[in-house]
Amino acid sequence: MKTILLFTAFLLITTGCFAKTITGKVTGPDSDEVIGVTITIKGSSVFTSTNFDGDYSIEAAPEDILVFSYTGYDSQEILVGNQMVINIQLTSSSLDAVIVTGYRNYNKQNSSKASSTNTTRPNTNAIQRLSGQTAGIRIQNVNGQPGTNSTIQIRGAASINSRKKPLVVINGKTMTEKELKNLNPSDISGITVLKDASATAIYGNRGTNGVILIDTEKDIKLNEAEIVMHQIRDLFENESYKNIEENEFEQVGTSPLSTFSIDVDKASYSNVRRMINNGQTVAPDAVKVEEMINYFNYDYDQPTGDHPFAVHTAVSKTPWNKETQLVKIGLQGKDINKDDLPASHLTFLIDVSGSMSNQNKLPLLKSAFKILVEQLREQDKVSIVVYAGAAGIVLEPTSGADKETIINSLENLNAGGSTAGGQGIELAYKVAQENFIKNGNNRVILATDGDFNIGASSDQAMEKLIEEKRKSGVFLSVLGMGYGNYKDSKLETLADKGNGNHAYIDNIQEAHKVFGKEFNGSLYTIAKDVKLQVEFNPKNVLAYRLIGYENRILATEDFVDDTKDAGELGIGHTVTALYEIIPTGKDSKHLKELTDLKYTNTSFSKDFNNELFTVKLRYKKPDGEKSMLMEFVQNNKTSRADDNMQFAAAVAMFGMQLRNSSYYNETTLEDVVQLAKKGKGKDKNGYRAEFIRLVESYRDYNKDIRFYSGQ
352 and 416 in contact (C-beta within 8 Å)? Predict the structure, then answer.
């Protein structure tokens, strides 16, 4: 008995010394998150730092003391004790700081004082010196380690409009992103910061997130300005998009075939809408013209035969170029009554890492999934898998009739920790396969900002992982959330390679569109690996270019290769593709001179004079492995553009303008508005009207920029 008591006492003593995981959040005096704060166990070399959202995690024993330190703030020491969560609010150090309270005329002394650096302070670079010297600038270290690449944010703005970029002005003129990149840092004589009312008083809503004023006109130049400018430019590089090389004109004589996969993703439009509504610069590679076009439904006739979709073609004049013609190829998926749909097993894969804590991420995500849950029937089942530093199962398969249990499981989710996206995908597909419904709808729904940082995280690693998982017969839907660190390129890769679709949820209205109005099309596939191959008749077409779909181009031989992956079509979905064609006999500045061929016969058949092109399609049934062929011929005749053609052309024109395309032919935003109004049609749900308002707002916003900048 004595031995047992001694052993028990030993366990109690030693257990108190074991390390445990301590988590928490570090905020500044304005209650905004601080990234890059160093948390050290006193007297040891063990340390960590806060992430993008000010969160941290560290292993420590009860007797350990955590030291929180960050340049410009007083260090704090906290005994761990019995605490599992330790939140800290930093306080400013006693060092003097210059507070910029508003925009006004100032003399050289004030200017240098606001932008100079104090070389006696132990900051690691000019940016952090600027942070401590000029109150109002917040420094964010990109990878969480002190002294590494940082970004600037106006302190106080984050708590109101998290992760939006401040306005940058040089010598009174608003800078474009291109001008910012081309600015020579050695020309800078001062940098001043405006925030709160002082920013909006001069620059209106554009100054909501603060203003950085750059001066190059004074004699004395700012020391280490090159480092400062590098960090300011980083403000515009936080989000990740695949590079898009715009499709050029192909001459039919040498390239008569155009082959591509359909794309039902709609993420680009809602993402661009978010950028415009937030007053941000629209990143050109964020603009995928085909996704903008396909965000909207078009009034195509339903299929009448055995195939799950109908094909519609039309040709009209191009609204932005009188020398060319516009070809529209539209696919209309078959509508199926909800009661006739197969049973579903949906695996919600939810990112609950620290980067998802913002209101426009996990809280919005919960609301979106509630809308989905309300659509479910008794025979449908839901499982919930979450991931942060590791992955876990939150809800075992639960009937759609038990909505309260599903919703409660969602409500109990909280964000914190790092992002092991690869582990989450592995576990979600494992759950989906173990609960696979034969002849049913089996789908993983991934909701994340895409900011994976543990395990398989690169685009290439994600692609390899998801290509392996799609062999299971489980489909994938990807929901992008939030902004600031949104990784569109990664999410696009997952959707493209995982037999899936990709949407971006920027507000609750978009969630209602995806999971309410378009529930069937978003979650039920009627045809997979859908490929199109268009053969143009050289008798009537000199050259063509596919508008958008740059990331969906396939090799000619891929059309008949059933092992090559392509896009999926959902119930009731419409897919639209536009070609701009140059008729034979027309001249164009966009055509390049070709070398005459010596050995190849380039004569054309004379048997199809009345044909303009032939469309061939291949698709598989959702559970099939062998493709079926469809073929349609478009005669050489143009028709008056109907509502669908005019509206699709207006969206394409807007996309080309946002991308600064070589082909929009100096059309204006007003041209887009007028064309969209002509094609508005019935607009049952008001989405086309919303597009018109968006372009009008963007038009007026750009007028304001020219006014303020004196252009």
Answer: yes
- For 570-609, b/e burial (b = at least 16 CB within 10 A) is bbbbbbbbbbbbbbbeeeeeeeeeeeeeeeeeeebeeeee
Phi and psi dihedrals of 522, rounded to 5?
A: -75, -30
Cβ(115)–Cβ(192) below 8 Å: yes
Q: Which two tokens stand for residue 316?
A: 């009209």
What pLDDT, in 10s, does the model give residues 261-318? 998 899 999 999 998 887 777 888 999 999 999 999 999 999 998 999 999 999 999 9
The token duo for 448 is 């994340």
The size of the chain, in residues, is: 711
Q: Which of 473, 355, 358 is nearest to 421 (CA)?
A: 355
Which residues make Cβ contacts (< 8 Å) with residue 360, sequence separation at least 6?
A: 162, 481, 482, 483, 506
CA 231 to chain centroid: 22
Tokens of 588: 């164009």
The dihedrals phi and psi of 323, each to the nearest 5 degrees, come to: -90, -5
Task: Identify whether the C-beta of residue 384 lies closer than 8 Å to the C-beta of residue 448.
Answer: no
> Exposed, middle or buried, 82 (CB in 10 Å: 0-12/13-18/19+)?
exposed
Please tell me the predicted confidence (pLDDT) of residue 129: 37
The answer to whether 271 and 504 have CB atoms below 8 angstroms apart is yes
pLDDT at residue 611 is higher than 60: yes
Beta strands 525-536 and 567-570 are antiparallel
3-class SS string, 26-67: EECCCCCECCCCEEEECCCCCEEECCCCCEEEEEECCCCEEE
Distances (CA, A) of 202 to 107, 192, 199, 211, 701: 19, 14, 6, 10, 15
Q: How far is CA 32 from CA 38, 88, 416, in A?
A: 17, 11, 16
Question: Which residues face 25 on adjacent strands?
Answer: 55
CA 212/CA 166 separation, integer angstroms: 7
- Give the other-Cβ count within 10 Å of 625's Cβ: 9
Q: Coil, strand, or helix at residue 175?
A: coil
Task: With CA atoms as reference, report the closest residue to 499 among 461, 538, 525.
Answer: 525
Q: Which residues face 384 on adjacent strands? A: 348, 395
Task: Kindly state the tokens that stand for 386.
Answer: 């979450």
Q: Residue with structure tokens 């609750």?
A: 508
DSSP H helix total and E strand total for the chain: 18, 31
User: For residue 356, what pLDDT is reported?
Assistant: 86
Q: What number of CA atoms fall less than 13 Å from residue 465's CA on the CB side?
A: 23
pLDDT digits (tens, 9 = 90+) for 354-387: 888 888 889 999 999 999 999 999 999 999 999 9
Cα(619)–Cα(623) distance, rounded to whole angstroms? 11
Cα angle 331, 448, 530 (rounded to 5 degrees) comes to 20
How far, in Å, CA of 348 to CA of 215, rounded? 50
In the numeric block, the tokens 């992103």 are attached to: 177
Please say whether the beta carbons of 53 and 358 come within 8 A: yes
Structure tokens that stand for 344 in this block: 């579903």
For residues 238 and 300, give the distance between their C-alpha atoms in angstroms, rounded to a whole number.
39
d(Cα 188, Cα 295) in Å, to the nearest integer? 44
What's the distance, CA 385 to chain centroid? 22
CA distances to 154, 502, 571, 637 from 522, in Å: 39, 9, 8, 35
Query: What's phi and psi for 569, nearest 5 deg?
Result: -115, 130
